[in-house]
Amino acid sequence: MAHRKIYLRFLQMMQALEGGDSAIQMDLDAKKLLEVIAVRHTQGNPLTVTEAMGLHQIASPATIHRKIDQLRDLELVETTFEGNNRRTKFLVPTEAAYRQFDSAGKVIQQLLGQQA
Predict the structure, then answer these.
(1) Cα–Cα distances in Å, from 76 out to 9, 71, 72?
(2) Which residues pair with 47 in a beta bridge?
């Protein structure tokens, strides 16, 4: 029962965070894609656009392409190149994306502090 309450409180806090004035509105597929991009970048293995198109567990390649455009428009990701290779585009989270993650991290920290 305690675990259920913790999880439901977490969901409540995340919904409050997502509904805030500074929250960037995006759908679940875009959020999942942004999370994959951020995790891969943090691991030092940035995701390429081609690799992103193969994330069938998130959406179809056409939908992924639209979500990449949406994330670019929201200034949450940018594409970069490595060295002189201009054919391979890497997806990299922006500072705006990291601010979103910071906000979510604060919510989680607050929740964990309440449960300690």
Answers:
(1) 27, 5, 6
(2) 91
Q: What is the extent of the structural domain holding 38?
A: 2-115
DSSP letter for each residue of 10-57: HHHHHHHHHTSTTPPP--HHHHHHHHHHHHHHHTT-PEEHHHHHT-TT
CATH number of domain containing 110? 1.10.10.10
Span between the terminal Cα atoms of the chain, in Å:
16
Q: How many domains does the chain have?
A: 1
What is the Cα–Cα distance from 116 to 114, expressed in whole angstroms? 6
Residue-wise pLDDT for 12-44, tens only, equals 777 776 665 555 778 899 999 999 999 999 999
Backbone angles phi, psi at 50, to 5 degrees: -60, -45
pTM value > 0.85: no
For the sheet with 85-93, list strands across it.
47-48, 85-93, 77-82
Instruction: Count Cα atoms within 13 angstroms, Cβ side, for 20.
Output: 12
